[in-house]
């Protein structure tokens, strides 16, 4: 693995000539988590455009909703197609359309993803009530099956609660109910505060229901299949995956057989570690050296 800023001019040219497509993560690459766009990022993507590199974003960031995220990213990469903003929810929508899904979705997630599903034409079942009588009878009374529900879809939900979890678990007792997950990450530290990711709640539902969700985020086979079908690419090295996490982004890049570029400092720690092909401390540095 090489630090891009330490490559010679010839080595950088050979790196740039080695790929056509860039699949790029968003959070931690274009901006710090919960921050604004890093100065110099726009210049980097403008330079990459000059080199005719086709950029697409593959992100777990469902929080803005796809349309809003597209607006932000289009400012960084002018002319970016909305289809080139790939989120787990957008792949779930494509999947549900492919199988002509027409039942209701029991959705545990935040409002932007709910809007994405709704605007794609899917029916969302009511997830309420938010509170129940403080007794087991109160809980049981809320767990009647709803035959119209054909899928449980999970995403990051800051308002997840006990009733939503047990309802999902009980709907999944019917084997014909699909179990799809856009949730990613167990926990993260943001501004020195620990937050729980959706995967923690997914594990609770999986344990209690005996069902396993199909995951649509990085590093899933469903996402790999989606990219390969959508963009008629192959696993050859003419593709570069860029991201800031080894176990999510670089692992996914390798699953696809792409070249990989880690954004951040890479320090080899053990023999089993995932090793990126290249790394750079900050992607905004790239425009200065190419
Ligand atoms: Mg990231």
From TrEMBL:
* GO terms of molecular function: metal ion binding; phosphatase activity
Name any cofactors this protein relies on. Answer: Mg(2+)
Q: Does the keyword Transferase apply?
A: no
For this protein, the record's Pfam families field holds: Hydrolase_6, Hydrolase_like
Question: What SUPFAM superfamilies does this protein map onto?
Answer: HAD-like
Q: Where is the active site?
A: 25 (nucleophile), 27 (proton donor)
Q: Write the record's keywords in alphabetical order, separated by commas.
A: Hydrolase, Magnesium, Metal-binding
Which of this chain's residues are annotated to bind Mg(2+)? 25, 27, 244
Q: Which GO terms describe its cellular component?
A: cytoplasm
Bound how, and how many: what does the cofactor note say? Divalent metal ions. Mg(2+) is the most effective.
- Which InterPro entries does its entry note? HAD-like_sf, HAD-SF_hydro_IIA, HAD_sf
- Tell me which residues bind substrate: 218
Question: Which PANTHER family does this one have?
Answer: 4-NITROPHENYLPHOSPHATASE-RELATED, RE04130P-RELATED
NCBIfam families listed in its UniProt record: HAD-SF-IIA
Family membership noted in the UniProt record? Belongs to the HAD-like hydrolase superfamily.
Query: What is the protein name given in its UniProt record?
Result: 4-nitrophenylphosphatase
- Organism listed in the record: Aquatica leii
